[in-house]
Amino acid sequence: QKEVEQDPGPLSVPEGAIVSLNCTYSNSAFQYFMWYRQYSRKGPELLMYTYSSGNKEDGRFTAQVDKSSKYISLFIRDSQPSDSATYLCAILSENYGGSQGNLIFGKGTKLSVKP
Amino acid sequence: EPEVTQTPSHQVTQMGQEVILRCVPISNHLYFYWYRQILGQKVEFLVSFYNNEISEKSEIFDDQFSVERPDGSNFTLKIRSTKLEDSAMYFCASSTLFYEQYFGPGTRLTVT
User: Fold this and answer.
1) To 5 degrees, how large is the angle CA A94–CA B52–CA A46?
2) Cβ–Cβ of A102/B42 closer than 8 Å?
3) What is the pLDDT of residues B58-102, one digit of tens each?
4) At B85, is the secondary structure helix, strand, or coil?
5) Which residues of chain B approach chain A closer than 8 Å at the C-beta?
6) For residues B87 and B12, what is the distance between their CA atoms, to the nearest angstrom?
């Protein structure tokens, strides 16, 4: 079973739409959940992270984690053409008793916001 | 805003040659990482480095790979004898808090 699953899309929405991006994961021990944005041929850019379950909001972006169903989501309100990018979910695989960790990425969802 | 930088942006090498990819992490960061992304595939973890030693490595990171922090600012990834399947984007990342990893722009490695 793959550790992090993400629908690669592509997803195309009109400007102003609410976008919902989702991932599922397999290991219930994971505690840190990240969303990165990646423009073509660029490095992943950290958008936000969430610890454990719950919601976190940052401007037009809301990250949500449901640990009971092992489901993480990123919502983008009032989407803009500049939001067009690939969105990667990532989960931190902790080691050394939770003092360090490496990221396990989903495949990324390619989002296109049309003006 | 401080950022991770990587050089070169693109490296072309012949199979069997050694390559060194260079990174300058964000200055007050303590944890350093290399990841790679083969075209069309997921970003994959290679190695993490803390307190001047490797703290974790993936099964991809075999004896052909090595990392070094030769001075207080640079962090390098060496591939001793490149193979065609090493062609990928290589990303360096750094963090001060281990869960907030910031990535560089990447080095595209093409092995011919």
Assistant:
1) 45
2) no
3) 999 999 999 999 887 899 999 999 999 999 999 999 998 878 899
4) helix
5) 4, 31, 33, 35, 41-45, 48, 50, 55-56, 58, 89, 91, 98-106, 108
6) 9
Give CA–CA dist A92/B99, Å, rounded: 7
Kindly give the residue spans of alpha helices, DSSP state H, lying in chain B: none
Q: Which tokens is A75 given?
A: 């919502």
Nearest of B2, B20, B12 to residue B74 by alpha carbon: B20
Partner residue opposite A42 with nearest CB, options B55, B102, B105: B105
- Give per-residue pLDDT as tens, B33-55: 999 999 989 999 999 999 899 99
In terms of Cβ atoms closer than 10 Å to its own Cβ (0-12, 13-18, 19+), residue A101 is: buried
